[in-house]
């Protein structure tokens, strides 16, 4: 069993639910990533941000957010006095493909309900993020 607290990235990503995390990676996903980005299949599986010091094929130079968290000495970005900061600013670019925009939501939920309760709901939130529909004035539907 994995420690989901340790597999929560400082930025609020739920690594334990990520399709490329080593515990979730399927041959189908590996083939898709390989075909789309040309990444060798043996380099696709991720152990999690903290376990790999923020370095992975999609972050070859590391993660500035992780570096910031280490420098400030907080466990999660939402514990920082500067939360939320520019590292967490949402963007439309890539929003349909990357879960970047969910990070701020996750961190707000962690701050509000605690990490244990958030872990219980994170999978449902991620599923809605990628499969739900947005309704103006109502947020997610579905």
Structural notes for this entry:
This protein is mainly alpha-helical. The protein has one domain (15-141). Helix content is 35%, strand content 4%. It has helices at residues 27-37, 64-72, 102-113, 115-131, and strands at residues 133-135, 139-141. It has a two-stranded antiparallel sheet with strand order 1-2. The longest helix has 17 residues, at 115-131. The chain is globular, with a radius of gyration of 15 Å. The model has no long low-confidence stretch (mean pLDDT 89).
Keywords:
single chain; 142 residues; mainly alpha; two-stranded antiparallel sheet; 4 helices
Secondary structure layout plus pairing:
Layout (H helix, E strand, L loop, with lengths): L26 H11 L26 H9 L29 H12 L1 H17 L1 E3 L3 E3 L1
Helix pairs in contact: 3-4
Give me a quick take on this structure.
Helices cover 35% and strands 4% of the residues. The protein is mainly alpha-helical and 142 residues long.
Give the total of domains: 1
Helical run tally: 4
What is the average of the pLDDT values? 89
Low confidence ranges: none
Distance between the termini: 30 Å
Annotation, overall tally of beta strands: 2
Backbone CA Rg: 15 Å
Order of helices and strands: HHHHEE
* Proportion of residues in extended strands: under 5%
Instruction: State the secondary-structure class.
Output: mainly alpha
